[in-house]
Each structure stands twice: as C-alpha cells, then as structure tokens.
Amino acid sequence: MEISAAKIILANLRDRIETGSDGKHRLSGILTQTELDALNLVIASHGDVLATSAGINVEPVVPLHSEAISALITKNADEPIVAVDLSTLALPAVQSSYRVCLDFGTAMSKASLVHDDDLTEDIRVLKLGIPGDQEQVDENMLVSSVFIDTEELIWFGQKAVGQSQNVVEGSHARMDNIKRALSEGNLAEPLDAKFNPTQQSLIYEDMVLAYLAFFTWTINEALAVEVEGITQNFFRRFAMPCFPRANARIVEPKLKVLLGEAQVLADTFGAEIHDGLPLKKLLSALRQLRSEKRTYDFIGESVTEPLGVAGSLLSWRNSHDSLALVVDIGAGTSDFSLYRLHVTEDEDGSFRSVAGEVDGTARGITEAGNHLDKILMAFILSKSDVDSTHPKYINITHALERDIRQHKEAL
After folding, report:
1. Tens digit of each residue's pLDDT (9 = 90 or more) over 52-81
2. Of 27, 258, 304, 397, which residue is least crowded by CB atoms under 10 Å?
C-alpha cells in the first residue's frame, strides 16, 4: 500500500465519522483491516508531523523501521482500492407504480416488471438473458451458476458455465446450486475447497451475494430498456421457498439484506461484473459495504414461490372462486401450498383478484431437480460399470457433475 492509497482509504474513513449532539465525534461500525493498515502506514511514515500538527506535547512518534514499512507495503501491494457506490441509498424514497418481482432460482433466475394502473396490473417478464449474454440458452431466464478460476476471477451465469469447461477435470468445480445455501443454513460456513481454488477466505454467503449482485445488474440493464428514467432504488419483492416457519424467519430477513447489498455492488462494478470480476475487488467492496449497518427500504416483503403460479390460474374475464393446490417443482426445492383464488367484478365493470394462501398449508421439501440430478448420475455410473475403484473415477464424476443438466434436458 502506497501513501497515496492510504490517504484515499483514510478519507473514506473520515467520511464515516459522525458528530453527536454533544459535539463529540464518533465512528460507527468496525474498522477494517485495510483501514487499520492505512493508519499504521501513515503513522509510521509521518508520525512526527502528526504529533506536531495535533499540538500534542509528547515525544514525536517514532517511525517504524524501513523493514516494517516494507512489510506493510508488501502485504497490501495487491489490495485493490474500490470506491463503493452508495448513491442508490441516498435517493429519496421511491413513489412509483412500478415494482419488480425477483425469483432467485436454484437452476435459473428470472424477474418480472409490474406496472399498476387504476384497473389492471401490466406484467412483463424482463429479458435478463440479453444483458446476461445467454440468449441462446434463454432470453428471459438467467443461469444460476458461479465459477471461480485459478486467476482469482469470478464468473456468473452462462459465462460461468463456459469458463468451467476449460479446467482440468477433477481440479475444481462450478457452483450450480448456490441457492441451496439458504435452505441448508450453511451461509456462514467456509466455501468448499472444490469451489475455491484460491487462497482467499470465502464463505457460502459471499457466493450467494456475488450472484445476486450479477442478477441485480442484469435487472438494472433490462429495466433501462423497458422503463425510461426508472431510479435505481425501484421497489422490489422476492419469491421465497416454502421453508418451515422457523427457517423462513431466519432466511427472509437475511435475503432482504443480501438483495439490498446486491444493488450497491451492482452500482459499484457495473458491466465489470460480467467480464470476470477480480475476487479481491469483490472482497474489498464487501468489507467497506459492511463496515457499518445499512438499511435497504426499497426491498419489500417476500411472497411464497407457489403464489406466482396461483396468480396465473386466475381469469380476468369472469368471476371466479375456488381452491387450488399449487405444486411448484423447482431445481432445488419442491413447494406445495393451498390457495383460495377469488376474482370479483366491481360495479364499474373492472375485475379485482385475490390469491390468498390458506394458513398452515405451505410445505417445502428438498427432493427436486437436484435430487433427480444425483439419481441420474448414479444411474449413468451404474450402467457404465464405473465405481470408486475405477482409475478415472474422479475425472468421470467431475465431467458428469459439470454436464448433468444438459444430460437431463436431453433425456
């Protein structure tokens, strides 16, 4: 770390200092390691000047030996300086008839733009596949994959799939099931070494947030085409699997924060997030972003994933009143819920709809698309007479894990 870099970091630190009603200055949040290193370096290099300018009647601060300064510089020489873009958080509260509904899926993710007027809801599925550069896979849906390469670049979506094809079989793997970290409760656990070929310390939550930042960036890009002048703090809701209530109480607030942080990271990195994002830059931005508690008022409440299906069963052309059991079989979870579907005609001739979940009927299980992937893999290995004693077992299973979705689709 050079003195010029340290000055930038300390300037950001100075912006975090608040003046209380008593006139005293306070620093909220925690001090990051990078900020601490910057303080140490400046003190070591200019300790006597700092003491004199502060009017402190003590012996001048003894500068560190040149070896110590060199160690500090070497330690932080490759530490990137990322200016986190917090502009979205400074925007006035949004008052708009537009909202975006996000569905973070295990295999694919999608989002819809909803525009309310006096009589109806105009719903448009956003074309995320275009900014995601994967129209050949799907124009609307986004591949939910993350891949870290040996150059410490992180890739998302279909580019993650493409980059993972270049690795030596059995070396390290692509993450195709990142959403499962929410249902399995392992967000705070270290990322498995098979997904992380670097020396960086990572947890599963880092990967979930990184993908959500990419997801949010594609939404921002698609919205710019659909709606002129929409602000970055557009209101959004998100789909939640039918977790048991205890799990939902933990996961929902966590996901709300992650989606808010994802908007800040999307603002910070822009299109760079789609071209191989340096992992160290991501981690540097995360440290700064989480240096203090922040609120994300533009993230609304969740809806259960089957509710989106239930709404599609309604007819807007006549009255309707019935019960429907919705079974939503996804890639990572299968969700069940009972709904009362109710459409009534008002006096002015317009129709009003309600899709209300019957209390206590929501259920979710983990037997879904990923479960089928494992069954298919076991079947292929069995038919090929390949087991753990095979000399190329690791290579074969790695290749199967990488391409199992394509095999399943072909089947």
Report:
1. 544 544 444 444 444 544 454 444 455 677
2. 27
